[in-house]
Amino acid sequence: MSKIILSICSRFNKESKSLSSIKEYVNKASSNMHIAVAYDAPSIYQGHTQNLDQTHLEHKLEDNDIIVMCHDDIQIMTNHQDFERMLQICLKRNVGFVGVAGSTYFDIEKTTGAWWTSRNFGATRGFVFQGMDQVFMTPNYFGPQGQVVVLDGCFMACSYRTLKLIGLQQPTYLSGPWDFYDIHLTFKAHRMGFSNFTVPIIIRHESPGHMRQEWYKARDEFAKFFRNELPVTLQYSKTHGIPN
């Protein structure tokens, strides 16, 4: 059975309460699941690379192993058995990334570069809980599970084989080390012929989604670099929830 590696990059140099809960979740899972954390990482690209290099030394990563790149402020609420089974089933050779939320449509002008604003015309997919804890969290339904162009970076998973093909190097067109990495990676997978999907893995995400100034700069850099390819939309979006 494939190993599942949770790779987390934190801008902080200490463990948060949420990160502790992710570690506890992994510790209670099967021996196939492992976690790697890059604290105080200089960039999200270097952080994930560092995590995977260290994991490869410890556990010998193979092509069919599953890499989950997620934020340090989430709580995985799907039980371990369903979580592992979902990833094992969904990540087939033609699948790029699977995640919890994304959109079948992406551009800059119509949606201001935020994938979730395309919910105004029914293009978003997926579901997350949002809030600081389970008592005060609220459901955020984006749409039926299915195929998308881009995914949100709070939770994205792919096979190790696919990630090696796509690459974890920071693209030259993005000057910032943290922002728009999720759009870069999932859009690149889409352009390479892979299919991305949202799948029914349930998480709670603490972030309220406020955009930093660096995000707007990255958005403009992305728009300039791909100006001849945007907008991009799926002519047909599979909405089965499970890639088949």
What does it look like?
The protein has a domain at 74-233: Spore Coat Polysaccharide Biosynthesis Protein SpsA, Chain A, CATH 3.90.550. Helix content is 28%, strand content 25%. The protein has six helices and 15 strands. It has a seven-stranded mixed β-sheet, with helices on both faces. β1 (4-9), α1 and β2 form a beta-alpha-beta unit. The mean pLDDT is 93.
What order do the helices and strands follow? EHEHEEHEEEEEEEEHHEEHE
How much of the sequence lies in strands comes to 25-35%
Helix content: 25-40%
Point out poorly predicted stretches: none
CATH architecture tag of the domain at 74-233: Alpha-Beta Complex
Strand order of the largest sheet: 2-1-3-12-5-13-10
| DSSP summary: helix tally | 6
Number of DSSP strand runs: 15
Largest sheet: 7 strands, mixed
Mean pLDDT: 93
**CATH class identity of the domain at 74-233:** Alpha Beta
Molecular shape? globular
Radius of gyration (CA) equals: 17 Å
For CATH, the homologous superfamily of the domain at 74-233 is named as Spore Coat Polysaccharide Biosynthesis Protein SpsA, Chain A
Our measurement of the CA-to-CA distance between the termini, rounded to an integer number of angstroms, reads: 20 Å
- Which fold name is given in CATH as the topology of the domain at 74-233? Spore Coat Polysaccharide Biosynthesis Protein SpsA, Chain A
Report the structural category: alpha/beta
